[in-house]
């Protein structure tokens, strides 16, 4: 038997009884190959221990078979689920993924984009730190395809796959209003990030419809972190009169807020109702507790990757797409029941 270092694509083709072009289609997951033929080729590859020369292939076709994924916070379960959707979709098409984590830092974002461009990735999936066109243009100016995840970039011509942040926030706050709450604090994300801005806008719209959008003191803004959620909740508790409900702009802010409420002896939902954007995966909690606007994180990653790969294949049309995925409001114990007292 040929040793691994000696086996060539022609050896695989000969053993499988097919043409070398068929082996290439199997390896590159391109073109039609019947399942029976694919199985014969894969068996021959395994038998010979053949390892394709990806470097030579990338030089020949000017492709590296890699895409970059630039996330804002890989510790957040929402983003790890998005990453899984990206990896699964990329793997289905024979692509590898390079994962980068910016921690919402513009300096880290610029550094990672530069690294990915130097590595000559075929495309980049980007969660921009701010809703500014500069990082998108930096990528596009190098002739590299880019799709933006989760966030709008108003002044850039770029494909975007995101969720309905405005609508999800609006429905959560409407829920609190129907339960009788009139003093609802918003623990929002950072200004200048479209998802955070959209969620505050949805909060405002729901209150405006019942004549309550007058209290700027009830809106707090800061990073999407547990520490910030804790600090904003503490500040909300000092207001007079105290809010009876909290809308948290993401799951990490909600977790921090719950800790602050517990430390202050405030019971949820008996003393304070809490709702949040972003659900927590079932595997992380024994009993789901938080009422949440759940985003289809896996599908977001999957669809963004499919769109990016379509662009690489020359498909998708001349106009950028703005794909908005729906959110689902899941009502649980943290939002409580209708208030019995009046004037809340």
Describe the structure.
The chain is an alpha/beta fold. The chain has 3 domains: 9-52, 434 Repressor (Amino-terminal Domain); 63-160 and 296-323, Response regulator (Rossmann fold, 3-Layer(aba) Sandwich), CATH 3.40.50.2300; 165-295 and 329-335, Response regulator (Rossmann fold, 3-Layer(aba) Sandwich). 42% of the residues lie in helices and 16% in strands. The protein has helices spanning 9-16, 20-28, 35-48, 54-61, 77-92, 106-118, 134-140, 165-178, 194-208, 226-237, 251-263, 297-312; strands at residues 66-71, 96-101, 123-126, 145-149, 159-163, 184-188, 219-221, 245-248, 273-277, 291-294, 322-325, 328-330. Strands 2-1-3-4-5-11 form a 6-stranded parallel beta sheet, with helices on both faces. It has a 6-stranded mixed beta sheet with strand order 7-6-8-9-10-12, with helices on both faces. Strand 8, helix 11 (251-263) and strand 9 (273-277) form a beta-alpha-beta unit. Helix 8 packs parallel to helix 9 (194-208) and helix 10 (226-237) crosses helix 11. The protein is elongated and about 80 Å long. The termini are far apart.
């Amino acid at each position: 038997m040929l040793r691994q270092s000696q086996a060539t694509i022609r050896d695989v083709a000969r053993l499988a009884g097919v043409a070398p072009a068929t082996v290439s289609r199997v390896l590159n997951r391109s073109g039609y190959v019947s399942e029976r033929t694919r199985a014969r080729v894969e068996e021959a590859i395994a038998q010979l221990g053949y390892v394709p020369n990806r470097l030579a292939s990338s030089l020949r076709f000017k492709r590296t078979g890699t895409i970059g994924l630039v996330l804002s916070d890989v510790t957040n379960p929402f983003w790890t689920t998005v990453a899984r959707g990206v990896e699964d979709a990329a793997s289905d098409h024979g692509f590898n993924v390079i994962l980068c984590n910016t921690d919402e830092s513009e300096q880290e974002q610029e550094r990672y984009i530069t690294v990915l461009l130097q590595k000559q990735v075929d495309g980049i999936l980007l969660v921009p730190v701010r809703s500014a066109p500069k990082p998108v243009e930096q990528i596009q100016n190098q002739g590299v395809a880019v799709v933006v995840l989760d966030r709008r970039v108003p002044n850039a011509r770029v494909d975007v796959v995101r969720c309905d942040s405005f609508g999800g926030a609006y429905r959560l706050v409407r829920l609190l209003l129907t339960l009788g709450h009139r003093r609802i604090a918003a623990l929002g994300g950072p200004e200048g990030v479209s998802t955070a801005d959209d969620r505050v806008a949805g909060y405002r719209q729901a209150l405006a419809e019942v004549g309550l959008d007058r209290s700027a003191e009830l809106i707090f803004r800061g990073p999407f972190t547990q520490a910030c959620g804790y600090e904003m909740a503490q500040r909300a508790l000092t207001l007079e009169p105290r809010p009876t409900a909290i809308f948290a702009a993401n799951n990490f802010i909600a977790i921090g807020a719950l800790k602050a409420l517990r430390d202050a002896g405030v019971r949820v939902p008996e003393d304070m109702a809490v709702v949040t954007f972003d659900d927590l995966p079932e595997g992380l909690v024994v009993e789901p507790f938080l009422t949440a606007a759940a985003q289809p994180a896996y599908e977001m990653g999957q669809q963004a990757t499919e769109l990016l790969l379509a662009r690489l294949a020359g498909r998708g049309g001349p106009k950028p797409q703005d794909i908005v995925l729906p959110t689902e409001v899941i009502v649980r114990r943290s939002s409580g029941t209708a208030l019995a007292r009046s004037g809340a």
